[in-house]
Write a structure and sequence with these properties.
Strand order of the largest sheet: 1-2-3-4
Mean pLDDT: 80
Largest sheet: 4 strands, antiparallel
Number of helices: 3
Structural class: alpha+beta
Distance between the termini: 65 Å
Order of helices and strands: EEEEHEHEEHE
Number of strands: 8
Shape: elongated
Helix content: 25-40%
Radius of gyration: 19 Å
Length: about 150
Amino acid sequence: MASTTNRVDGSATTDTVTTQVTTNGRTIIDDAVVAKVAGIAARDVPGVYALGGNAARAFGAIRDAIGSSALAQGVRVEVGETQVAVDLTIVVDYPTPMMAVASAVRSAVTDAVTELVGLEVTEVNVAINDVNIPALDGVEPEAEGRVR
């Protein structure tokens, strides 16, 4: 059984969930939900091709083929009583500026977790482990402004 810490403000945490107790009832948010929210927010940032390392993406491709998806792939969260730290591993599209993508990911994840989950985000660490080059995937990017 997971250990629980009760707080004066009515919040409690366990090893895998965040719990808020009010006079009207109790709300429990699992850490996996926080990771999914962060993953969805990161995927929506322009320039992010995928989340996760090579092995995680390989397993993700298998999951996608059978109709399942892992929205928290490449995301690790450490959830405290009122705060959360997020670690993300991403693949960036070439030639998108990587520092700009990382900054946008930090902002999107912070906003989403704060707004949707209600936790303060202390840090968002972004590891860029690969670059997606569309020409190597056999897909030629369309030339803008060319008449065909």
